[in-house]
Amino acid sequence: MSEDSGVLYGIVDLSDNSTVVYAGPCYFIGAIVTTITSAHVCPIQDGTSVIAATIATAPVGTEINGHRVRCATNLTVDPHDDATGIMVVYYEPNHFGLAGSGAGLPA
């Protein structure tokens, strides 16, 4: 991906109970499994709303297309307490519309 595209990533260890990948509004681009997951489905959420999930025992290379879903709250991976595996989650922060700040607004 191009460095100027604004797409960032977070590496998520599924053995952690819950990981906030980005603590603010953003676009969920997608995810890829880099270490096989355990026998648990792993939800990817906007706050508490599930927007995507991995399959149980997802093999390395499993891709999840985020369809550039807009997360209004935050982007969180909240696996089962006994889950294992690692995934890379891709996202793009959404800085548009911050009241009064002008941050990220087109010139």
Which shape, going by the Cα principal axes?
globular
> Helices and strands: which structural class?
mainly beta
Gyration radius, to the nearest Å? 14 Å
SSE succession: EEEEEEEE
**Low-confidence sequence ranges:** 100-107
- Sheet-strand content, in percent, reads over 45%
Helicity level: under 10%
The largest beta-sheet arranges its strands as: 1-8-3-6
How far do the termini sit from each other? 24 Å
Described by strand count, sense and barrel closure, the largest sheet is: 4 strands, antiparallel
Mean pLDDT across the residues is 88
Describe the structure concisely for a colleague:
The chain has 107 residues and is mostly beta strands. The chain is built from no helices and eight strands.
